[in-house]
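Closing statement on the GLP sub-project.
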Amino acid sequence: MEIYRTNNYYEMSCKAAGIIAAQVILKPDSVLGLATGSTPEGIYQQLIGKYNKGELDFSKVKTVNLDEYKGLDKSNDQSYQYYMFNKLFRHINIKAENYYLPNGMAKDSKEECESYDQLIQDLGNIDLQLLGLGQNGHIGFNEPDDHFPKGTHLVALAQSTIQANSRFFEKDEDVPRYAYTMGIGNIMQAKKIVVVVNGRQKADILKQVVSGPITPNVPASILQLHKDVTIVGDREALSLL
Ligand code: GLP
């Protein structure tokens, strides 16, 4: 694992955006695996800035997102489709047919999971996967478990995740209890992985991820086995390493 130390959220975002920009410049038809949550927002702003300056061209880029809440459609401002469209896609020249998220409104969950796995395979796997880190060590929505799920699946969100997400919803009962997520197998097949982490509240879990035992109880710990992982963290998140 390569670890980049940065001083703050802004520097973390610039550094991670630089890595993604390099990927797109070197391989204009890259398949990018994208993430949501508050951590990557600064990265998306930086990428939009680079696009506006003419430094980046997304016309051949394809993207697949990690996850989506079950039961939320793209008009719901808490859906990840809404997030991605408004925080990135509508600001750059990516083609509408080239970005993908799991369909939270799918009628048949099993079929949705199978077709998302097939899609990733058809795209030729992910060149660069961006990851945030949940406070319980989850990546995507792969929650602590007794095994590492391989493919895309429907997951019952952990109580701690529901609680962490409740800040975005008006009423507690509106917070989704289920989500679709790529599996650990999909993530580990990415050629390169970039993890972004900021804030003191992630320091303990990041320490476990990087130097603790590899266990499905800390899903991100599996990243120790990947051959090309870069962690970009701010000083606070890296304070225990
Ligand atoms: C959600 C997402 C994850 C994300 C995590 C951390 O659970 N499914 O992909 O990494 O939140 O979010 P934040 O970056 O807001 O701390």
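Residues 35-39, 66-67, 132-134, 140-141, 161 surround GLP (CB under 6 Å). With this model delivered, the sub-project is considered complete and its resources will be redirected to Aim 3.
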